[in-house]
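Section 3.1: Structural characterization of target chains.
Under the original work plan, the team committed to producing a structural model for every single-chain target entering the pipeline before any wet-lab resources were allocated. The record below documents one such target. The sequence was received from the expression subgroup and is listed exactly as submitted; it comprises 56 residues.
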Amino acid sequence: SVSMFLEKRIGYLDIYRTVARVMDEHSPVCRPSLDQILHADTWARQRTEEIVGTNF
């Protein structure tokens, strides 16, 4: 979200809104493996792109 703000794709207050929405949709994993962490990172970045693409 911060990079999208710096690219002027979203506003400053949209950083929080976007991150909050992605976190709300995420299912946490207790003691994740590195693979699970990398997968979650990829998912979160893709989901953020989807949210920004449809809402901003």
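The helical segments are 2-6, 12-25, 34-55.
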